[in-house]
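Morning - alpha-D-glucose-1-phosphate-6-vanadate inputs below, output right after.
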Amino acid sequence: MKIETIKTTPIDGQMPGTSGLRKKTHIFMEPRYLENFIQATFNAIGGGTNKTFIIGGDGRYFNKEAIQTIIKIAAGNGAAGVIVGQNGILSTPAASHLIRLNKVDGGFILSASHNPGGKDEDFGIKFNTQNGGPAPEGLTDKIFAATNTIDNYKIIDADDVDLSTINITRHGDMQIHIVDAVVEYQALMEKLFDFTAIRALFAGGFTMRFDAMHAVTGPYATAILEDTLGAVAGTVVNKVPLEDFGKGHPDPNPIWAKSLIDLMMSDASPDIGAACDGDGDRNMIVGRNTYVSPSDSLAILAANAHLVPAYCKGLAGIARSMPTSAASDRVAEKLGIRSYETPTGWKFFGNLLDAGKVTICGEESAGTGSSHIREKDGLWAVLLWLNILAVRKQSVANVVTDHWETFGRDYYSRYDFEAVEIQKANKMMHHLRNQFSKLVGQSHAGLTVTSADEFSYLDPVDGTISKNQGLRITFEGGGRAVFRLSGTGTQGATVRLYLEQYSGLGGNLGLDVQTALKSLRNAAFTISDLEATIRRTEPDVIT
Ligand code: VG1
Ligand code: CO
């Protein structure tokens, strides 16, 4: 089969962010854009010769075309094989698992996660390494550097592969294996959890709604929840992955999964509601009249994990991203294990998991996961909740309230200011940094500042330092405000403001979240001078 070396020149802005390279779909579809990035990735990892890769995506618009191109470039770079999800589908956690299970050299995951899909929406590529986890910063820096020096890419001249049939074919010397997207992932879940107990839970009349948001988890959730665990047919809704996710944002939060929230807050509520995002790595958990904040969910899962087969021997440690609330730290303290605070993005958990320092990790953005793979895992979190409920025989609401009574409650909310002019967003961050030296001791909105700093992370495993990971301000009385710029947006800058207020022991103050956070919000708004710096007074999204 003929390998062609095609001349190219660098394309601006192919810089991987928090979770891979993310751009408008039409940009990915421009000539050489995808080709350059894939070739740059091969260049950065020292070539593709004799290597094998997993390839799959969340089914969004351009997924299949991009997969065909990646297969041809892999062959052009001398790869020994590719393993591709049937119809081009693989959830991010399933891809991570397949990389580990088959001990291959890495994987290309095509997704812009919770960002909407379609020709005028977003597309993305993540490269995961041998351990199954997202490329660490050292590698994404190399990929970016390679995109700036690239002068050719190697591709074979071949027909497209039939992605719909499970079989093994070849492009010249390279083997192409189309695999079922669900089977191995499901087998892993059956090893981790007590499926018999969960089956008994459903058989006893327990009800659920799982919203796949027309994204990748539909086939996984249907096979596991309905076909295997016996949840009644219809439990999984929006189960067919669509190229445009039915025009929604496949983002499992109260804004974008509003119909699920409405159901859970109504008389018709099932016992539990859950939803996952575009690529299946995030999760939302809702009980009857009870929304479980992601930071609380992490803490509750960690506190109860020992009830489940995979974690019955206890946890090695717990890691959370810096903006995630301190709820899981309190659990670690009680369990007598270490807690770690990492920058935003799953890539920072990989080293801790590989070194056996932590078992469970999570982020405020609805990502939870464990040492079973090297990505966050939406359906895993849902199954862990189900297994815990099956053992505790309590409602979601009771489990949550019980947790607050034991540990106290961390009121939490995130404000997103979207599509802000990049210059203005940077100005706001500068404005904040400039005040940091004099902020301590000042009082704003009745709250006294106790510390102000910029988070930087020293990886305890490999000693890498990651700077500029968010500005944090703490207040007397257990409040904290964090400012950070998103690394996953595709339009201007997204400013994220994370607010957290600890209730103290004794748990629930009986307040709604925004009321509990009001002073903190006012203090954060005043200190950052949002109105003057980014000309916004209200966030676009509050979660
Ligand atoms: C966001 C979240 C972060 C998450 C990342 C990727 O990043 O805040 O917690 O790891 O998305 O998630 P940012 O930089 O926009 O804040 V996913 O589901 O897109 O892999
Ligand atoms: Co995701």
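Note: Residues 2-179 form a domain with the Alpha-D-Glucose-1,6-Bisphosphate; Chain A, domain 3 fold (CATH 3.40.120.10).

O.
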